Amino acid sequence: MDAVGMSSGAKYECLLFDMDDTLYPLSSGLNMACRKNIEEFMLQYLHIEENEVPGMCLQLYRECGTTMAGLKELGYEFDNDEFHAYVHGKLPYDALKPDPVLRNLLLSMPQRKLIFTNADTAHATRVLNRLGVEDCFEGIICFETLNPPLEPLDYIAASPEDHPTGSPDTSSRTSNSKILCKPSLEAIEAAIRISCVDPKKTLFFDDSARNIASGKAAGLQTVIVGSSELVPGADHALRSIHNIKEALPEIWEGEGEEGKQVQLELVIQSMAVETVVLA
């Protein structure tokens, strides 16, 4: 039985999760370390004045979704892979530990589960492996998914209808093209198309109020993570991802005994499940 079949009687058919500062807490320190590495990259490789870097980094993040996207819009030229390798290469991944509570929660959910992150494939894979939840998700929508290189890529989760010409148009994309990323409505709508989900039956979990607002504008059901207070566009609020069962019991409703048996089988066989990068 596939994931859609399991959850046909449930309120939601898909759960779309942001990753950084959503599946693990902001207090891990990865966020601040990543910002520091971005500032170093701006200083050493783009030769931006040292006194301008911190403010510029934060401003571009706020205005463009990510500092990287903002730098591209300003006309700075650099290789995307080299940027990601630099800013993620020195992150304190050791701060992330296996999270059996999160793992058990994810495995008990009957819906399809996908990661939707602005990060690149390498970082997403490493974080999920460190948390011990790499096999809990059907796929990963990441930087490469929304910003494919010049060479056409096969979109695993996309149907031919998503791309009338048969494949995504990458003919005009260069290393200096505009970056598609959250919180842009275009990025979220692209993720919805690629994952082939019904937004009205999809729960979107994210720690960013901007991303939540865009998710709601795209028609998703939304959950702000890391806050006990609702933000504009949020349908639910979670202080921690670990509180999900208490705050959203409807995820587990409508399963029936057959669904519960399938969940048990999934837990037993979970190590055989492979996460696919949708890129």
Layout of SSEs?
Layout: H1 3-6, E1 14-17, H2 30-44, H3 53-64, H4 67-73, H5 80-89, H6 100-108, E2 112-116, H7 121-131, E3 139-141, H8 143-146, H9 185-195, E4 202-206, H10 209-217, E5 221-225, E6 236-238, H11 244-247, H12 256-269, E7 276-277
Parallel strand pairs: 1-2, 1-4, 2-3, 3-7, 4-5, 5-6
Helix pairs in contact: 2-5, 3-4
Pfam family, one: Hydrolase
Protein name: Pyrimidine 5-nucleotidase
InterPro entries: HAD-like_sf (IPR036412), HAD-SF_hydro_IA (IPR006439), HAD_sf (IPR023214), Pyr-5-nucltdase (IPR010237)
Structure description:
The protein is an alpha/beta fold and 279 residues long. It folds into 2 domains: 14-26 and 97-148 and 178-278, Rossmann fold, CATH 3.40.50.1000; 30-91, DNA polymerase, domain 1 (Orthogonal Bundle). The chain has helices at residues 3-6, 30-44, 53-64, 67-73, 80-89, 100-108, 121-131, 143-146, 185-195, 209-217, 244-247, 256-269; strands at residues 14-17, 112-116, 139-141, 202-206, 221-225, 236-238, 276-277. Strands 6-5-4-1-2-3-7 form a 7-stranded parallel beta sheet. Helix 10 (209-217) links the parallel strand 4 (202-206) and strand 5. The chain is globular and about 55 Å long. The relative contact order is 0.18. Mean pLDDT is 85; it is low at 1-7, 152-175 and 256-273. It comes from Trema orientale.
